[in-house]
Structures are given as structure tokens and as C-alpha cells.
Amino acid sequence: MLRQKGKLAPITQLCTLVSSTFNNSFPSVLRNPTVVVRPIVKMNDEDHWKTQKEEPNLDPIFKQKRILRSKVRKELKSMDPNLKTQQDNAIQEIVLEAPWFKHSKRLCAYISCNALREVDTLRILSEILKTPTKDGPLQIKKHLYVPRVEDKNRHMRMLNISNIDDLIANSMDILEPAPLDSHGNQREDVMQADLPVDLFLLPGLAFDKSGRRLGRGGGYYDTFLKNYQDLAKEQHWKQPLLVALSYSLQIMDEGVIPLTPNDVPIDALVCPDGVIPISPAALERMS
């Protein structure tokens, strides 16, 4: 569904469900990553907000979020594996065929973790890393930045990778970029890059069609996105498009997801039935 002027209007469905998986096309590091032990970062709302002073009492909101997270996690855990595969394939196909994705030259994207039951992004990442990417008659070189969690204080970086082999697995089997490349050089950090990001592909536990996003409680993405938006404003760059990937069961009714002052809204949702533009920027760029 497409949101326009405060009401919902039908949109053309942008994909058909695909039954086959893409696992055989992934490089071996994605199927059997080398486990590198790093500390497990525990994420919770209290850590996210303990230094914030804008609101004196956010406990009721934290409680609502915890209840909703628990509910969504249980539903994701019980999701039929065949349905999950179908929806993973459909969502990735929609993204890969979308003009707004094809035109994006610089992207930040999460690396999906099966244990967290996130929408699969492995085929998307593999396509981004192809050099160059074809957009009609044009050849577009894409640059990809992926997240690396540094500590328990909401400190996350987005580092450039040029190959799937640049990723290693932490103690939770979540793939991350090594801080140094194969030559021992520091990877480019998107916050120090000379050019702006066009598109963020974001994970989450729940979303609604007004742009609310429920994360896992650590505040890593909200903190990073706010900092990047401030940087873009300071540099007079066009703000990036914030697009979340969502299974059907993760889309909530409007008003169900509670908000805190630092929650960053998304611009659009991609679900198995198609694209849901939300913000004016998404309506303009995705039309």
C-alpha cells in the first residue's frame, strides 16, 4: 500500500514470490564463516537512554517496547521456514529490480543474521559488490559500507568492503568487516568519506506504515543514523534514503510502536508484497 496525503491508496505489486533459494550462489565465507571470538554486546533500552536527559521518565515506553519485542521475536521464531525463504527471496528481488536501488552508487547495508531472523540480505550484498553494476546501458560502480559494533555505548561504524572475504564472524556468528584490509590499512569509514551515501538498507524487529521502526533496544542504528544525518546537513549533502526490509508479520498497525525522542523514522518499507514509500523523499524517489 502507498501512503499519500494521510490516506492509503493501492500500489502496483512489484514482485512475485520466488520459491528457490540463492544459497548456492553465495561465497563460502557466507555459508561457513570463520568464527572470531569478540565480546557479545548486550543491547537494552536502559543502556540506550541512561545518558539522555530530554525525558525524565521513559520507563513506560521502555516497558511497551520490551513487550512488543518479545511478541515479535516469538512470532519470528515460529515462522514457517519455507515461508521465510519465499519472503526473503521476494524482498531481495524487489530491491534488486528497483530503480532507486540501481541508481544508488554509495550504500550502507546490514549483514543479515539467521539467528536473529532478519530479512536475508546476502544476495543483495553480493550484487552490490559486483563490479561494475549494470543499470540499463550505464555501468555503475557501487560502494558498500557495512556495520561493525565497537562497544556497548552505541558506538557502531560503517566500514567499506570490496569483497565478501572482507567479512569475519564474531562470537554471535554475525558477519562484520575487519577494521583493517588485507594490506593492513584502515578501511574507509563512511563518516569520514568525501561523498554522501545514497541509500541505507536497515534491519528491525517491527515497523509501521507511518515510518516508525522498533529496533533491538541498543540504540546503535538510531545513534548512527542521527549522526550521519547531522553530517549530511553540515556538508550540504542530500539526505540518504532510509529503507527497512520487513517480513509481513513485522508490519504493525499505526500507533502500536511507541516512540522515544531519539527514534529515527524510516523513509520506506520493502515487504514481500512490494514497496511502501512513506516520507516525501521516498514518494519522490520511488515514483
UniProtKB/TrEMBL annotation:
Q: Which UniProt keywords apply?
A: ATP-binding, Magnesium, Metal-binding, Nucleotide-binding
Which GO molecular function entries does the Swiss-Prot or TrEMBL record give? 5-formyltetrahydrofolate cyclo-ligase activity; ATP binding; metal ion binding
| Cofactors named for this entry | Mg(2+)
**Catalytically driven reaction(s):** (6S)-5-formyl-5,6,7,8-tetrahydrofolate + ATP = (6R)-5,10-methenyltetrahydrofolate + ADP + phosphate
Q: Name one GO biological process term.
A: tetrahydrofolate interconversion
Q: Where does this protein come from, organism-wise? A: Dillenia turbinata
Say which enzyme class the record assigns.
Answer: ligase
Query: Which EC number(s) does UniProt give?
Result: 6.3.3.2
* Name this polypeptide is given: 5-formyltetrahydrofolate cyclo-ligase
One Gene Ontology cellular component term attached to this UniProt record is: mitochondrion
Instruction: Report the leader peptide range.
Output: none
List the Gene3D superfamilies hit by this protein, alphabetically. Answer: NagB/RpiA/CoA transferase-like
Q: Which family does it belong to?
A: Belongs to the 5-formyltetrahydrofolate cyclo-ligase family.
Taxonomic placement? Eukaryota, Viridiplantae, Streptophyta, Embryophyta, Tracheophyta
**Coiled-coil ranges per UniProt:** none
Keyword Aminoacyl-tRNA synthetase annotated: no
